[in-house]
Amino acid sequence: MTGFARAEGGDELVTWAWEIRTVNGRSLDVRSRLPGGYEALDPVIRKAVAGVCQRGNTQVNLQVKRGEAPQAWRLNEELLQQVLDVMSRLETRLETAAPRLDGLLGLRGILEPVEDDESPEQLAGRLKSIETDLGVALEALAAMRAEEGARLLQLVRGHLDAIERLCGEAASCAATQPETLKARLREQLDVLLAETNAVSEDRIAQELALLVGKADVREELDRLEAHVAAARDLLAQGGAVGRKLDFLCQEFNREANTLCSKSADVDLTRIGLDLKSAIEQLREQVQNIE
Questions:
Q1: Which of 9, 62, 95, 144 is close enough to 133 for a disulfide, judged by CB 3.0 to 4.6 Å?
Q2: Domain locations in the chain as residue ranges
Q3: Nearest to 11 by CA among 138, 120, 127, 139
Q4: What is the pLDDT, as a whole number, of residue 66?
């Protein structure tokens, strides 16, 4: 299932923002993007996401930004002195102009940013607040996925209704009735045997029974109806049923294929093709269910 959520927070020094995106997937795959110094949150993220999602590819991003206070700088006097000593030794060898102040300060490491000193307790408190906002984002994500799930539920039920209706049409089709099958096959045999009487009635009866058995699709229709009932039971249970529904779609398709291969009637073949189309529409929606 797809979803997106965002949660923001901050303290006196930094602000942060969580962004969580989920897309469809056969299993749960969690990937996090964290700024330096916050790598310890990765196992926390994985555990928290697993408590909300059971399927899908989930991308979790944390953005941390320092406040707008001016950056403090510190002069690295030891490094500066080393540079001046080197320049003093070179003055006797090279005839060059004295370096400008801005050039000296522009050397890497001469000026160093001063990080605000924080106690371990302050850092731990910040991490705790960041984890709390992660929970807020996951709650919003779960609510969004629940709304999408409610819409998918109606679509899936509609496809199951269509499959059940088509099964009823197939069951009512004259081509599925044993007596009709026997009569049609008998006519075909009469044409083939019109010029010979070498085949006994017993042999003809055996062949008719065999052909009728091969063309009978009532078992396939019974199994399709059983699959519809099983799918409805899964939807009533709730929870993560996407994998089970995906398996049922394979069974639906197998029975529909068998029905079409057995069909020797145009109307029954048309119903079988409509049935395959409805099953494919069901399968596409099931891929979105957790």
A1: 9
A2: 3-69+128-145, 73-113, 149-286
A3: 127
A4: 78
Distance CA 244, CA 242 (A): 6
DSSP 108: B
pLDDT bin (cut points 50, 70, 90) of residue 213 is: low
Angle in degrees, 0-180, between the axes of helices 242-262 and 218-237, rounded to the nearest 10: 170
Burial class (CB in 10 A: 0-12, 13-18, 19+), 121: exposed
DSSP three-state, residue 196: coil
Positions of E strands within 67-176: 73-75, 111-113
Cβ(203)–Cβ(193) under 8 Å? no
Q: How high is the mean pLDDT of the chain?
A: 83
What is the fold, at CATH topology level, of the domain defined by 3-69+128-145?
Ribosomal Protein S5; domain 2 (3.30.230)
How many whole angstroms separate alpha carbon 203 and alpha carbon 196? 14
Looking at per-residue pLDDT, the higher value among 200 and 55 belongs to: 55
15's tokens? 């602000």
